[in-house]
Design a protein that fits this description.
Blueprint lengths: L1 E9 L2 E10 L5 E3 L8 H9 L6 E6 L2 E2 L5 H6 L2 E3 L12 H9 L7 H5 L3 H20 L15 H13 L5 E5 L7 H10 L5 E5 L3
Parallel strand pairs: 3-8, 6-7, 7-8
Antiparallel strand pairs: 1-2, 1-4, 4-5
């Protein structure tokens, strides 16, 4: 991941000003700064969640600065949020399947007719989802609604959802203490994927 001269301003006030860095592949990097330093705003700029951001964001040699949010995700950019972006009405397994849905290789018509290859893809997705949950110590909670889980486990569900998209880089916004980033990297290695992690430690 390469960031060049990233900047974000709100009403003339610069929240991020000329930030540049390069992250090597296959490692974990912390982005440190005081409260209000613009760390989350920088994450929002990289992922496309803030308007008016300038600079270059390059992922695996591809310029993604002008892409919309969903296309940046398809290019391999995963993200968790400081304020959890989960669905209270879905269980833990369903959150993992939400992330995997982006990689499904069939259309909605084939899905509605329950074609054989659709069933094969769904079986594969459930296997991958269970594997992710197991490696993040969530498998025993697979059928629990996320609203019924303690905050620390909800943070792990958010990571699983992001990992399920098969990202090249994962941005973790203030992960809870003890969040298993090493396990996340090992999980992706087993899936044949080299992944970078950038995390914002809690201030």
């Amino acid at each position: 991941m390469i960031v060049r001269d990233a900047a974000v301003a709100f009403g003339g006030v610069k929240a991020v000003d000329g930030v540049s860095f390069e992250i090597p592949a296959g490692g974990v990097t912390g982005l440190i700064g005081s409260n209000g330093a613009g760390k989350t705003t920088l994450f929002n700029a990289i992922t496309g969640h803030v308007k008016g951001a300038t600079g270059q964001f390059i992922l695996d040699g591809e310029e993604i600065s002008q892409k919309p949010i969903h296309n940046r995700a398809l290019s391999g950019l995963g993200r968790t949020f400081q304020n959890l972006n989960l669905h209270d009405d879905l269980n833990v397994l369903e959150h993992a399947l939400l992330g995997l849905d982006r990689n499904m290789k069939y259309g909605r018509i084939a899905e509605s007719f329950r074609m054989p290859w659709v069933l094969r893809e769904e079986k594969k997705a459930h296997y991958v989802a269970a594997e992710l949950l197991d490696h993040m110590d969530l498998l025993e909670y697979w059928n629990e609604k996320v609203e019924d889980l303690p905050y620390g486990l909800q943070k792990r569900v958010d990571v699983v959802r992001a990992l399920a998209t098969n990202p090249s880089i994962l941005l973790l916004d203030e992960p809870a203490a003890g969040l298993p980033t090493a396990e996340a990297l090992e999980m992706m290695k087993k899936r044949g994927k080299s992944m970078q992690i950038i995390f914002l430690p809690e201030s």
